[in-house]
Amino acid sequence: EFIPAQIVSWNQFKQTFPDALVLSRETGFSRPYGDNPYFGYDQVGTPTFFPVPLDDPRLDAKARVLTVERDGDYVAFPFSALEEHGVIHADVGGAPVVAFWQPGTLSALDQGAISGSRDVGAAAAFVPVVDGERLTFEARDGAIVDTASGSTWNVLGRAVDGPRAGEVLAPVLSANHLWFAWAVFRPETRVITGPE
Fold first, then answer.
1. Helix, strand or coil for residue 62?
2. What is the pLDDT along the chain (196 residues), one digit of tens a residue?
3. Are residues 140 and 87 in contact, defined by beta-carbon separation less than 8 angstroms?
């Protein structure tokens, strides 16, 4: 069974879930968890470590994407488009979806030490409905805001400020991939680069 999962910064996670349990690094043996054995692997324009039968000119093989599947409809939101817009509304599988992006999450594949990697941001998809009311979101000065109440939301789908503070959007089954890792299995995927 697939469940929604996000890659977010430790800071974003602990701000949202200050009382959460965290796995210990004390595993009984030494492992350099902050080191990346695949230095530079997510650099756009570089080859994969193995041949991939992907001849798709829509995106570079190493483009980072947020993918969503609903009722047999497959879509990909490139991180580059999400970074540009902050929020993208779309219809996926006949239902509304909203994709959020926020900066602050480092690439685990960029530099040898993850702490020195570039900020690729974090992305996730949600059902833009709370208590039966369909919400519209937009990016305002780097924040995700619902236009009806002016409340501010984070990339984890939680209202963190304003009249809706404390409310939570239902996540849509989504994942973060490099384009080749998704498109080779789902070549029929629609690529969404802006508001539909």
1. coil
2. 777 777 888 888 888 888 888 887 777 777 777 777 777 778 887 777 777 776 788 999 899 999 999 999 999 999 999 999 999 999 999 999 999 999 998 888 888 887 888 889 999 999 999 999 999 999 999 899 999 999 999 999 999 999 999 999 999 999 999 999 899 889 999 999 998 7
3. no
- Residues 6+ away with beta carbon under 8 Å from 113: 34, 35, 36
* Tokens representing residue 63 in the block: 């483009």
DSSP state of 116: G
Rounded Cα–Cα distance for residues 35 and 32 (Å):
6
Q: For residue 10, give the DSSP letter.
A: H
Query: Quick one: tokens of 166?
Result: 């404390």
Which neighbouring-strand residues pair with 191? 76
Q: Which residues 6+ apart lie within 8 Å of 25 measured at CB?
A: 31, 33
Length of the chain, please?
Answer: 196
> Whole-angstrom Cα distance, residue 156 to residue 171?
9
